[in-house]
Write a structure and sequence with these properties.
223 residues, alpha/beta, Rossmann fold, Arc Repressor Mutant, subunit A, 2 domains, 5 strands, 48% helix, globular, transcription regulation
Length: 223
C-alpha cells in the first residue's frame, strides 16, 4: 500500500513542489494539504495519513504544537511527523523532537532525500543519522537541562549495557558502529535499542537521543 502523506506548510508554492516530487513515486500518495497547524489537525483526523510533512513557523498554530497534538496521548491515528526546517536549523526543532516528531529535514534538501525521508519515517525509523540530531542538540544546548538535575527514575530501569547503548545512540553511532564498539552482533544491538525505547516509553532513536541529553546522561559537546 502507498504511504499516505499530508503536506503542512504556509507557503502554497512549497506544498506544490513537494506534491510534484512525491506524487512521482509509486509508493507515495499525497492525500491532502494544510496551511497551518489547526488545519493540519483537522486533516490528520479526516485523512489518517501515515506521515505528516510539517513546517515549523506557521500562523494560528505552529508546527511544534501541532506535532504535540498529533503524536501525543489520545492521538487519533498512527501518523508520524517529519519536521521541515531551514538551512540554519530552526531553534524550535528541539521542541518539535521533544513533542514527538520522528526527525527533521532541511527545506532545501534534494528531492531524493525528501522521498527517502518519507519512506524512513513511514517505516517507523528515526530520520537521518543520529549524529545530525546530536549536532542539532549541541547547537541548542541552552534549551536543554544543565545536567545538574536529578537523574530520572526511568533511567534506573535500564541495565548497564542498555545505558551504554543509549549513550552511543546519543553520540550518533549507527547499530553497526555500536556493535563494533561493544564487540556484539548488530542483532544484539537492535534488541538493546528496542528494550531502551520500550522501557523509557520512547518512539524512536531521535527521542532516545533527546532523552539522553535531557536526563544528563550525555552532555552537549561530550564525546
Amino acid at each position: 500500500m502507498a504511504i499516505r502523506v499530508l503536506l503542512v506548510d504556509d507557503q502554497p508554492l512549497l506544498r506544490t513542489g513537494f506534491r510534484m516530487i512525491l506524487e512521482a513515486e509509486q509508493d507515495i500518495a499525497v492525500v491532502g494539504e494544510a496551511g497551518d497547524g489547526l488545519q493540519a489537525l483537522d486533516q490528520v483526523r479526516a485523512l489518517q495519513p501515515d506521515v505528516v510533512l510539517m513546517d515549523i513557523r506557521m500562523p494560528r498554530m505552529d508546527g511544534v504544537e501541532a506535532t504535540r497534538q498529533i503524536t501525543g496521548p489520545g492521538r487519533d491515528g498512527p501518523a508520524k511527523v517529519l519536521v521541515l526546517t531551514t538551512f540554519d536549523l530552526d531553534e524550535y526543532v528541539v521542541e518539535a523532537l521533544r513533542a514527538g516528531a520522528s526527525g527533521f529535514l532541511l527545506k532545501d534538501a534534494p528531492a531524493n532525500e525528501l522521498v527517502q525521508a518519507i519512506r524512513v519515517v513511514a517505516a517507523g525509523e528515526a530520520l537521518l543519522a543520529p549524529s545530525i540530531t546530536r549536532r542539532l542538540l549541541d547547537k541548542y544546548a541552552v534549551h536543554l537541562p544543565s545536567g545538574d538535575e536529578p537523574v530520572p527514575d526511568t533511567l534506573h530501569t535500564l541495565t548497564e549495557r542498555e545505558v551504554e547503548v543509549l549513550k552511543l545512540v546519543a553520540r550518533g553511532l549507527s547499530n553497526a558502529e555500536i556493535a563494533a564498539d561493544l564487540f556484539v552482533s548488530e542483532t544484539t544491538v537492535k534488541t538493546h535499542v528496542g528494550h531502551v525505547l520500550t522501557k523509557l516509553g520512547l518512539r524512536d532513536r531521535v527521542q532516545a537521543a533527546v532523552y539522553a541529553y535531557e536526563s544528563g546522561l550525555v552532555r552537549p559537546g561530550s564525546q
